[in-house]
Amino acid sequence: MLLDLLHRPAGLRPFYQPIFDIRAEHPQLHAVECLTRGPQGTTIESAPILFEYVRQLGAEARVDRLCVARALEAIGRTRGVVDGSTSVCLNVHGVTLAQDQDFVPFVAELARRQGFAPWQLTIEILEFRNFAGDARMAAAIDTLHEKGMRIAIDDLGQAESNLRMLLECHADYFKLDHYFVRGIESDPFRRSIVAALVDLAPRFGAWIVAEGVETPDELATVRRLGVCYAQGYLFAPPRSLEAAS
Amino acid sequence: MHSVASSRPLLIVEDSRAVGLALALLLRLKGQEVECASEEAEAIALLAHRRYAGVFVDLRLGEAESPNGLRILDYLQRNRPETRAVVLTAFGTPLLAREASRLGAVAFLTKPVEDADLDAALDILLAEEP
Known about the structure:
The complex is a heterodimer of chains A (about 240) and B (about 130). Chain A has about 240 residues and is α/β, with parallel strands linked by helices. Chain A has helices at about 1-5, 45-55, 60-75, 95-100, 105-115, 135-145, 165-170, 180, 190-200, 215-225, 240-245; strands at about 15-20, 30-35, 85-95, 120-125, 150-155, 175, 205-210, 230, 240. Chain A has an 8-stranded mixed beta barrel with strand order 1-2-3-4-5-6-7-8, surrounded by 5 helices. In chain A, helix 3 runs parallel beside helix 5. The longest helix of chain A has 18 residues, at about 60-75. The mean pLDDT of chain A is about 90. Chain B has about 130 residues and is α/β, with parallel strands linked by helices. Chain B contains 5 helices and 5 strands. The interface of A and B includes residues 44, 49, 52 and 56 of A.
């Protein structure tokens, strides 16, 4: 099975995309988001197809563990990409948090071994919707906070990431989907939505991250609206660790 | 020989690597771009994110007792109704053919596939809508 390939050393390939603090004139590195691609030369090389395949098999927890381990081990080995003040964002499926009770301690231990403080880790929850109101999910979120890790709502505003998540995730970051950023400088309605979220975020104790910033105009607009953090091709595409360092 | 190739690739869903590769080779010789999947989950992941000119589906994938290829036809009918499918099978029965047809399969090829039958199936797969 293709799934077995993922366990091989080059099966899952970690990529990293920086997230910048854009409050100052010169953006400062704030965090790196860990992304994963599948085995090179296979049909599941691209991330969307890889994770659709994994979801079809119901293997999210098994693969999330592998992705997190690969990403943290690689970044831990390489000094200079992430220092003591930079955080690391890890994508995790909602089903993994709800059903794998040992997942959070597993991540905490892995991070400790690689020399990361808990606050340096941000868990970006994917596909929360099916676990809205689920007691196991609530317990996992409590455990993440108890361990000192941070939580992000990924792709806020798209189908899987809705306002209910704001109430149930107690997130530290709202990651605004690129759909709301694209062409924002010339769209007053997009600006209204982002301005409303910028107003809302501090009431939840959260910061806004603008995803998919691709042009100087988009950056200038989200910055003017009060967004603190941004990522996207304007700064850097996802890169392998070798390329990133 | 079938001479019209689509600019979109065809997807072959076949768990036997030898059969999949042979069919892919034949189709590539006809100028058709091809991708291969060997598992149901892999095929559905590909169909969810890419558009294909048509799909060849083996009805029995892996060690499954049931003809799990029917689930791929069902997925296509629900999510990609514009994508036509041809069924591949070594053990066709009239009942199975009827079920595949109900799920939108436009042709039924028995393995080993003859070149003339493959051409005829390609014509049906890639034909313009009337």
